[in-house]
Write a structure and sequence with these properties.
Blueprint: E1 2-6, E2 16-19, E3 24-28, E4 30-32, E5 35-37, E6 43-45, E7 48-50, E8 52-53, E9 62-70, E10 74-76, E11 90-94, E12 102-104, E13 120-130, E14 133-136, E15 156-161, H1 166-170, E16 178-180, H2 200-210, E17 227-235, E18 241-242, E19 257-260, E20 263-269, E21 282-285, E22 292-295, E23 306-311
Parallel strand pairs: 2-15, 5-8, 10-16
Antiparallel strand pairs: 1-3, 3-12, 4-5, 6-7, 9-11, 9-13, 13-14, 13-15, 17-18, 17-23, 19-20, 19-23, 20-21, 21-22
Length: 312
């Protein structure tokens, strides 16, 4: 199996959340002849510290590391013609680290575009071969089943965020697909909560929930009920958004929501005319692609009326 350590902490089999810059290490943990072997300095499983011996003392084995990653950046839970939790197309991609007992966690996707540059979520598998016997940690076969299109918690998962801001928590979803009509049997079991993927509104709610706000997952039409209005306007020919009186809409704060007609993102950078909202400003959003930062002008929604909002 795989255990994961952040910095000098004990290695664990739980889903690990870390920040960019943290040292996150995947360690092989092998059981043979009643003994556990690992090069992790300390291993804790089910709340108990394991006695482990170094991998150099283990029987002769071969190790192969792999990613478990989405092969698609855009999918829909309604592609069958009616709603269902569409299975996410996960693939196994090899990591060039044969027979290494420990490797650095790299969450950059290889089958879809990497927008995170070292932040996001990745799943991993370890295959161990001894003679003619091969075993592997849980992988793409470990499907969660009802109420999910993703994989169970048995699959080793590492999430690295940019920082502890609202936008930082949104970056935890980098590398995961845009899922039209993402959903869950409850808020706690929502696909976004499990970092399987999300649609535009659910991505924003995920960030708010990670910030400690008690917000239920909803669609863009439900966001006004859980946010407060800061400003509203439409785009002029010069790319600047103006309110009904013709005054420029201010670029309020990084992390504020920009609600379009049936789409939403978060303000990420005042890139155009400083201090005012224009279509050269940068938003973080997900739309038919994994989450990324993009100019408002390139979102496909720049010409619709907008509202700037904050979660209550």
């Amino acid at each position: 199996m795989i255990v994961v350590a952040v910095g000098d902490s004990a290695a664990t089999s739980k889903h690990v959340h870390a920040k960019k810059g943290d040292k996150v290490t995947l360690h092989a943990l092998v059981r043979a002849g009643g003994h556990f072997y690992s090069d992790a300095a300390s291993v804790v499983l089910d709340g108990k510290k394991l006695h482990v011996e170094p991998m150099s003392a283990a029987p002769a084995i071969e190790l192969a590391w792999s990613r478990i990653e989405p092969a698609v950046a855009n999918m829909s839970n309604t592609s069958s013609g009616s709603f269902r939790f569409e299975p996410i197309d996960y693939r196994v991609t090899a990591i060039d680290a044969a027979n290494r007992t420990s490797i650095a966690a790299d969450v950059r996707p290889t089958l879809t575009t990497d927008y995170g540059d070292g932040v996001g979520t990745m799943r991993y598998r370890l295959t161990v071969t001894q003679g003619d016997r091969t075993i592997a940690s849980p992988g793409i076969e470990a499907k969660r089943g009802r109420g999910s299109g993703g994989l169970t918690d048995a699959v080793t998962t590492v999430t690295i965020r940019r920082d502890d801001t609202f936008l930082g928590f949104l970056t935890e979803m980098y590398g995961q697909p845009y899922v039209w009509a993402s959903a869950g049997l409850s808020d706690k079991t929502h696909q976004s909560e499990r970092l399987e993927g999300s649609d535009c509104a659910d991505l924003m709610v995920y960030g708010a929930r990670r910030m400690g706000k008690h917000v239920a997952y909803t669609w863009t039409g439900g966001l006004p009920g859980v946010t407060k209005l800061l400003a509203a306007g439409t785009r002029g020919e010069d790319g600047i958004y103006r309110d009904r009186s013709g005054e420029p809409v201010p670029f309020t704060h990084v992390g504020d929501l920009i609600l379009f007609t049936r789409h939403v993102g978060a303000l990420a950078q005042d890139k155009g005319m400083l201090g005012v909202l224009d279509d050269q400003d940068i938003v973080m959003h997900t739309l038919f692609d994994s989450p990324k930062e993009q100019r408002i002008a390139d979102t496909g929604y720049a010409g619709t009326p907008i509202e700037l909002r904050q979660f209550k």
